[in-house]
């Protein structure tokens, strides 16, 4: 289980990245020769294979002795003569960049995934700057427990201690001072923000003051409503002191032309062929009902057209879908008109309350 503030903390730190720069020594060149000795018949040394790898650039050529792990890496990457590879000196990791242009005529047919590159120039040993981008949350999870990187794939991160986060923040600050790391602030989007309670809002107030705070975008469709966890009312259900820190953007209802463009884009995304008259009809319905309802009618109208084996959705298909599926306004009007026919309607509820009141009076 996870507390509300812990979930918000993890969301905050997921949206903050750090770009770590690291210089590594690599060996880069074209493979000229790979020779692997046959396994020894002696049982004591049968598993330890050795070999030699010859690499070259446009300016030089050199040979390297291979151990068991390097031979396994070469076999795993399926390195062959003519491939251009890089070898990380620190980790021994081999990366195949592609085949040399000189070897492009070696075979009559090659895979479409084969990539041809130029033979490297200069010395074989080079220094290369490698950039890794990770989020603060990933660093928290990895350092929170043994084999913490496995929790990143499982998603079972659980509660992370504040001491771990403080150590990570301190390490990030050191990297920034040394020029090894760079903060990449992201964007955190909180939809239906009025569903948060006063505890979450107080945490947000404090978190937004942090140096590592991301850009927070909040969305709400509430007017003057009660703040969850209190009896006080506030605009959008957000405390006044938090609203004062925000840049508020107000939105306007879509016009018919804008709705027409949205319907057109949605039809293209869903591969639905619809003529302009049908799109205009849906756009007009959108001004009277809602955009969500209109977008759902696209699929249903398309199915109706498919049933009559038509390739293009017409106004009749839209009209039939509109008649089959009611929107919110028509549904409310229907319920008000046929309220007596439903169980536990308003009048039934009043009658039931009156019966209970009469029974209590008689029993008294």
UniProtKB/TrEMBL annotation:
EC category name: hydrolase
Main location: nucleus
One term under GO cellular component: nucleus
GO molecular function, one term: hydrolase activity
Keyword terms, alphabetized: ATP-binding, DNA damage, DNA repair, Helicase, Hydrolase, Nucleotide-binding, Nucleus, Transcription, Transcription regulation
Protein localization: Nucleus
Domain RuvB-like AAA-lid residue range list: 262-327
All residue ranges annotated as the TIP49 P-loop domain in the record: 1-256
Gene Ontology BP terms: DNA repair
Any Pfam family hit: TIP49
EC number from the UniProt entry: 3.6.4.12
Catalysed conversion reaction: ATP + H2O = ADP + phosphate + H(+)
PANTHER family, sorted: RUVB-RELATED REPTIN AND PONTIN
Family to which the UniProt record says this protein belongs: Belongs to the RuvB family.
Protein name according to UniProt: RuvB-like helicase
Native organism: Neobodo designis (Flagellated protozoan)
């Amino acid at each position: 289980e996870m507390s509300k503030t812990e979930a918000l903390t993890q969301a905050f730190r997921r949206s903050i990245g750090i770009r770590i720069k690291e210089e590594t020594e690599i060996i880069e060149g074209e493979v000229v020769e790979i020779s692997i000795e046959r396994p020894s018949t002696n049982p004591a040394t049968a598993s330890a294979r050795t070999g030699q790898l010859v690499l070259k650039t446009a300016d030089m050529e050199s040979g390297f002795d291979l151990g068991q792990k390097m031979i396994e890496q070469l076999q795993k990457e399926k390195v062959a003569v003519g491939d251009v590879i890089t070898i990380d000196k620190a980790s021994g990791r081999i990366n195949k960049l592609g085949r040399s242009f000189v070897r492009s005529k070696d075979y009559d047919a090659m895979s479409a995934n084969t990539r041809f590159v130029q033979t490297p120039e200069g010395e074989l040993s080079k220094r290369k700057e490698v950039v890794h981008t990770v989020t603060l949350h990933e660093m928290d999870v990895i350092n929170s427990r043994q084999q913490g990187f496995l929790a990143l794939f499982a998603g079972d991160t659980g509660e992370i201690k504040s001491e771990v986060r403080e150590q990570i923040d301190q390490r990030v600050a050191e990297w920034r001072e040394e020029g090894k790391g760079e903060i990449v602030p992201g964007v955190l989007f909180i939809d239906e923000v009025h569903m948060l309670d006063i505890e979450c809002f107080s945490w947000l107030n404090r978190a937004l003051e942090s140096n590592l705070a991301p850009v927070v975008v909040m969305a709400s469709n509430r007017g003057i409503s009660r703040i969850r966890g209190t009896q006080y009312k506030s605009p959008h259900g957000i405390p006044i002191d938090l609203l004062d820190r925000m840049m508020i953007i107000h939105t306007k209802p879509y016009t018919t032309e804008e709705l027409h463009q949205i319907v057109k884009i949605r039809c293209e995304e869903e591969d639905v062929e619809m003529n302009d008259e049908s799109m205009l009809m849906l756009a007009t319905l959108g001004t009277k009902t809602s955009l969500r309802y209109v977008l759902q009618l696209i699929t249903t109208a398309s199915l109706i057209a498919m049933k009559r084996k038509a390739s293009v959705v017409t106004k009749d298909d839209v009209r039939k879908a509109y008649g089959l599926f009611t929107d919110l306004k028509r549904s409310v009007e229907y319920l008000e008109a046929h309220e007596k026919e439903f169980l536990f309607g308003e009048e039934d509820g009043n009658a039931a309350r009156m019966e209970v009141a009469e029974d209590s009076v008689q029993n008294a």
